[in-house]
């Protein structure tokens, strides 16, 4: 079925095809980011299980260093799968990465701890995390291309906003599961075996994601390229040599969301446990409020970007983060009022959503179909590798170095300012690619 057939199909049939494509992309993305994010939710337990240290902060830093190192595998995976997706198809790569992520996450759940394997325990953990990072590098670009190449022009913002919504929902599922385990298991049980449960669940979730991704055809745009024999045999080289400026814009535009996601959504439970006196129930309530505010705001911000443009929404939200992050962290870190903590966290979650919702359509619209996967992979993954994946480590380090519980806010403020400046100084991305669906 060519692109022209999709466009000329009856509206009901066309909508059904788009719906199946979005479901395949979003559900698979949920699985990927549940798998990837659950690591942060069990960080304090992993510090005990996998690292021998008399200093709890040092052990926690080691856990987050392992978390961050995996992000250095993301660009490698992005380069590999991005190029493969432009040469062989988005659907094949998306099916492959969801299997890789699920298997590597499941592997963490069966690894021996330090007490059993000694120094080999953290080494094996690192290898599994590197495999997760390699897989994640191929997920975002493939899912971004897949959904935006199916979505009509007036709906790309709202439909692609479902990708970060799936990420946050995956984190919420992980947080809920860990809260249930924490409430029903003793600390010794949690350390002995309870922490493994979220990782073991990854395997059946991965099978669901794989099934859905195998049930949908590749995008009409990619199939049209293949049929016309116009696909690029060296898409990665073409991206780097011909798309450098828009890749740089994608890099800068990602900073607000990349740092915000990992400082606020992923790191928040550990942050609350370390700097406040909240119990596990209160930590879950605050984390849930942040994630729900984020999830609800995403389609609203995506729909707004469909009406007024991607750049204005991302820019205004980034400026909002510059202004609001410090006072929001003040409210969260006090630990004396659950209401204040929820308010501060929800504000951050909503603002980060507004930087995320238009981002994936914004990136897809900057690049031609023949190099879209590769170009998005390079710009997005490089940004997240350098500044997003290192965020929990840097936040923990800043708290220990400065003695201030507010220190992580400085990092997010700097990232948001960089995104606002990037978009202010460029006109790249204002023109929508004529190759994407227009009806």
Automatic annotation (TrEMBL):
Record-given protein name: Putative proline/betaine transporter
Single GO cellular component annotation?
A: plasma membrane
Where are its TM segments located?
58-82, 94-127, 162-181, 193-214, 247-268, 280-301, 313-332, 338-364, 376-399, 405-424
Stated membrane topology is: Multi-pass membrane protein
Q: Does the keyword Kinase apply?
A: no
Question: What role does it play?
Answer: May be a proton symporter involved in the uptake of osmolytes such as proline and glycine betaine.
**Domain Major facilitator superfamily (MFS) profile: from-to ranges:** 21-432
This protein's major location comes to: membrane
Q: Which domain of life is it from?
A: Bacteria
Alphabetically sorted, this entry's keywords are: Cell membrane, Membrane, Symport, Transmembrane, Transmembrane helix, Transport
Q: Where in the cell is it found?
A: Cell membrane
Against InterPro entries, the record matches this protein to: H+-coupled_symporters, MFS, MFS_dom, MFS_sugar_transport-like, MFS_trans_sf, Sugar_transporter_CS
Q: Which family does it belong to?
A: Belongs to the major facilitator superfamily. Metabolite:H+ Symporter (MHS) family (TC 2.A.1.6) family.
What are the GO MF terms of this UniProt record?
symporter activity
Any Pfam family matching the protein: MFS_1
């Amino acid at each position: 079925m060519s692109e022209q057939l999709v466009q000329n199909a009856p509206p009901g049939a066309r909508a059904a095809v788009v719906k199946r494509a979005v479901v395949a992309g979003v559900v698979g993305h949920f699985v990927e980011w549940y798998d990837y994010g659950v690591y942060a939710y069990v960080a304090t337990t992993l510090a005990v299980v996998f690292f021998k240290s008399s200093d709890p902060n040092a052990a926690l830093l080691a856990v987050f260093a392992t978390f961050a190192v995996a992000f250095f595998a993301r660009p490698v995976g992005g380069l590999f799968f991005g190029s493969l997706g432009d040469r062989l198809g988005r659907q094949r790569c998306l099916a492959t990465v969801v299997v890789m992520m699920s298997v590597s996450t499941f592997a963490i759940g069966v690894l021996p701890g330090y007490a059993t394997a000694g120094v080999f325990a953290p080494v094996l953990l690192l290898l599994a995390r590197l495999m997760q990072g390699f897989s994640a590098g191929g997920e975002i670009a493939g899912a971004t291309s897949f959904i935006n190449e199916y979505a009509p022009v007036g709906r790309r913002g709202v439909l692609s906003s479902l990708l970060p919504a799936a990420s946050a929902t995956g984190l919420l599922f992980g947080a809920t599961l860990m809260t249930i385990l924490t409430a029903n298991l003793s600390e010794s049980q949690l350390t002995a075996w309870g922490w493994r449960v979220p990782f073991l669940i990854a395997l059946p979730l991965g099978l669901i994601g794989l099934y859905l991704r195998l049930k949908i055809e590749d995008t009409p745009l990619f199939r049209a390229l293949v049929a016309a024999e116009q696909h690029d045999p060296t898409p990665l080289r073409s991206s780097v040599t011909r798309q450098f400026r828009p890749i740089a814009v994608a890099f800068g535009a990602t900073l607000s969301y990349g740092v915000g996601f990992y400082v606020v959504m992923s790191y928040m439970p550990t942050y609350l446990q370390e700097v406040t006196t909240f119990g596990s129930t209160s930590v879950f309530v605050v984390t849930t409020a942040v994630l729900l505010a984020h999830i609800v705001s995403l389609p609203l911000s995506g729909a707004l970007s469909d009406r007024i443009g991607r750049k204005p929404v991302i820019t205004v939200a980034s400026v909002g983060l510059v202004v609001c992050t410090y006072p929001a962290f003040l409210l969260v870190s006090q630990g004396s009022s659950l209401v204040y903590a929820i308010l501060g966290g929800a504000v951050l979650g909503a603002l980060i959503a507004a930087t995320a919702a238009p981002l994936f359509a914004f990136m897809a619209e900057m690049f031609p179909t023949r190099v879209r996967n590769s170009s998005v992979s390079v710009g997005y993954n490089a940004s997240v590798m350098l500044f997003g994946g290192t965020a929990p480590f840097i936040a923990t380090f800043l708290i220990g170095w400065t003695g201030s519980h507010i220190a992580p806010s400085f990092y997010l403020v700097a990232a948001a300012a960089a995104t606002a400046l990037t978009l202010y100084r460029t006109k790249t991305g204002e023109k929508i690619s004529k190759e994407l669906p227009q009806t």
